[in-house]
Amino acid sequence: MTQPGLRFQNIAPLYEKEYRLFIVARFFYTMALRMVATVVAYKLFQITRDSFSIGLVGLSEFVPVFVLALYAGYKIDRSDKRTLLLKGIFLYAICIIGLIVVTTPAFEVNRHKSFLEISFYVIIFFTGVIRSFAGPTSSAIIAQLVPRNMLHFAANISSTAWLSASILGHASAGFFIAWFGVNITFYIILIYVLTGAFFISKIEKKPVMHTNATLKAWGSVKEGLRYVFNHKVMLGAISLDLFAVLFGGAVALIPEFADRILAVGPKGFGFLNAAIDIGAATILVFNTFYPLRQKQGTILLFAVTGFGLCIIVFGLSTIYWMSFLALLIAGMLDGISVVIRGTILQLTTPDEMRGRVSAVNSMFINSSNELGQFESGFTARLFGAPMAVIFGGFMTIIVVIITWIKAPGLRRFEY
Q1: pLDDT by residue (tens digit) across 131-150?
Q2: HSE of 285, CA atoms in CB hemisphere, 13 A
């Protein structure tokens, strides 16, 4: 294959056929994931009229992701990542079919609302089991799709695809709910999931990178944990994101803000859900052509600080355009941190440990989204939604201050 010139170096991974297939699959699958989160949160709030139910959804997904993450990393490193990812996507499609069933009007009319609520929690629990394997696999497989000298560009493009899909997933979910209703929206999501499976199926099976058959499961898991905890820059970046997402999870309470505080309906709800991702994707597209050149660690810490300030503004706002703008800017700052964290992970992880390191990252980062959703729902019940969001923003800033003091290596990090 002809290598791209220096002018197009930042998009060089797209010249690789299998990487292109992966990006398309990742786009559709991620869009489905984000739509499920949006539609389930909306539907549960309509059933219960209580944001705490949204928090319980987050807890339902957090538990399997956290418990299974390390074992998932062990299995990923000993598996063909393409086949494992394909199986995960197909299993996720089965969960979508379950959501279609429980939102069918004929099913709903004959069931008590508590039964419907529990049905959502059970299905989301199983999506968490699937994501504990599929999420780290999506990250780990990238190194087998592009040459190592393109890896940092591939990580950036992958993050851009993920956030672009999040935009369409969040925003279109709100529109589809308004136009077609919740049940039909889940049919659309099922089509997206199956489209992702189709493109992954076109990728060739991949060799297993970790071949030490004598190392048992727990020994392998400890090896991955030891690597992450000994790598102070990686640990600092992961920890920073863990607590920032845990406390700054304003998105979980958007259904209540859209309904009770801003009164904007399903369409406004969809745009508010998409605001953070619109901002992040804008920055990621810009960064694809104009990447960060220096002082990335310092920039990361300032970006997370700004994110926390924007979350505070969102919690204080009662004006729709101001709330949207606060989330949009928060997304831009989050996009910067996504680029830096993703690059740290890809550049500092040995090929034979990518599954386990990605799983540790997933346990910290992905599960923090769900746990943060529960934290937001719980504090909203105690103090009300606005105070819960404001508290989260202040806690995010405190976490940055502690990281600045305790992780000087991250502050000085450059690549």
Answers
A1: 888 888 888 888 888 887 78
A2: 11
